Amino acid sequence: MKIVNPVKNAILAKWPKGQITQGFGENPGRYNQFNLKGHNGVDIIKSDGWPIIGTAGRVVEVRYDPTGLGSHIRILTDPDLKGDYLELSYGHMRGILVSPLQRVKDGEQVGTMGNTGTVASGDKLYVWGNAPAGKGVHLHLTVRECNLSSTGWTTSYSTGLQAYIKNYDNGYKGAVDPFPFLEEGVKEEAVSAIELAKKVIAQFIEYLKGRNRQ
Q: Over the stretch 52-64, which tens digit does the pLDDT of each residue have?
């Protein structure tokens, strides 16, 4: 089960190589106040108003939370043959371009990037409407694994739908590291490995040439 790159043209690798500025589980001290062991998603930066791209599924929540993710949406992907599916949360959005219960296709724009809700810029936290222009602009992506037959935590949405969250008591309220699910993240790792292999081969060839000249 893969997630389409949620930020158009973003390189899903850690800063400064890519646009991920905060990974899963980082900065535990900052998130204790939210009863979390650490950051429960990944933060991806681009400019204010940048397109946010969705993964195929149904929009089950459109919310405005000034003390958390700000303007955000949640999408449930379709279950696979094992009944497994994902809950995807897209946070701190400037504009929301989808409606509750709407079906979303892979690659469809669902909103624009902003700094709504509680966002950080450096060590400073800003609450809804207090962040200066451009400060703290990012997409916060949270992923929770679900199953149709789960006997674990059940969460309900304003649309009347429910999801069965796996491992809700994991210290992140069921959230898991999104990176393994991100299509471009996997590709980025693969490209990095290929480039490294090319460099090693090139260095070895130069070494052999040097020996032949001796």
A: 999 999 999 999 9
